[in-house]
């Protein structure tokens, strides 16, 4: 795919890696949506602060 200025590492990712990242982010969005309904969204947010990623 295209070069991503916010990529974690300098080397270009393969399309397979990009697909894996897209799947992971999609799953995280789904999990986050479910977590809000299950009352564990605080735990999800705490985990996110640890990883440095941002949800929502």
Describe the structure.
- The protein is mainly α and 56 residues long.
- It has a domain at 29-56.
- Helix content is 62%, strand content 0%.
- The chain contains 2 helices and no strands.
- The chain has helices spanning 15-38, 41-51.
- It is elongated and about 35 Å long.
- The two termini are 24 Å apart.
Structural category is mainly alpha
- Topology as a string of helices (H) and strands (E): HH
Stretches where pLDDT is under 50 for at least 5 consecutive residues are: none
Q: Major sheet: size, sense and barrel closure? A: none
Q: Determine the mean pLDDT.
A: 68
Number of helices: 2
* Envelope shape: elongated
Q: Which bin fits the share of residues in helices?
A: 55-70%
Task: Report Rg.
Answer: 13 Å
Question: What is the number of strand segments?
Answer: 0
How far apart the termini lie comes to: 24 Å
Strand content: under 5%
Short summary:
The protein has a domain of 28 residues. The chain is 62% helix and 0% strand.
Please outline the helices and strands.
Layout: H1 15-38, H2 41-51
């Amino acid at each position: 795919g295209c070069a991503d200025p916010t990529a974690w590492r300098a080397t270009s990712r393969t399309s397979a890696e990009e697909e894996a990242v897209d799947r992971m982010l999609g799953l995280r969005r789904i999990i986050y949506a479910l977590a809000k309904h299950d009352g564990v969204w605080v735990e999800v947010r705490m985990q996110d602060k640890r990883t440095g990623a941002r949800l929502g």
